[in-house]
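#structure-requests
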Amino acid sequence: MSQGQYRIHLRNHSNKKKDSHGARAKFMDDLMYVVALIAPIMTIPQLLQVWAHKQTQGVSLLTWGAYASVSLLWLIYGIVHKEKPFILTQFLLLILDSLIVIGVLLYK
């Protein structure tokens, strides 16, 4: 599931000076890598419901198809802007969302 908004953060690579803003930005960059892994993990229970238990009741094909489509668009956006945490999150979400769509099609 991809949600939220994204703001392009331009980095000045020529400025090597470490200041409090730079330290906060580094912390946020590191935090986003953690978020990039946690967000897709939250999709796993739905994936297990569909694939392990073959239960598709209450799982919307339209909703998960839309999530997959939106993840694809956000992935392309992340690639264009070279934002690694964003690319990682959207790539993983695209795979998981697509697997849920395929499972719903197979087991409904």
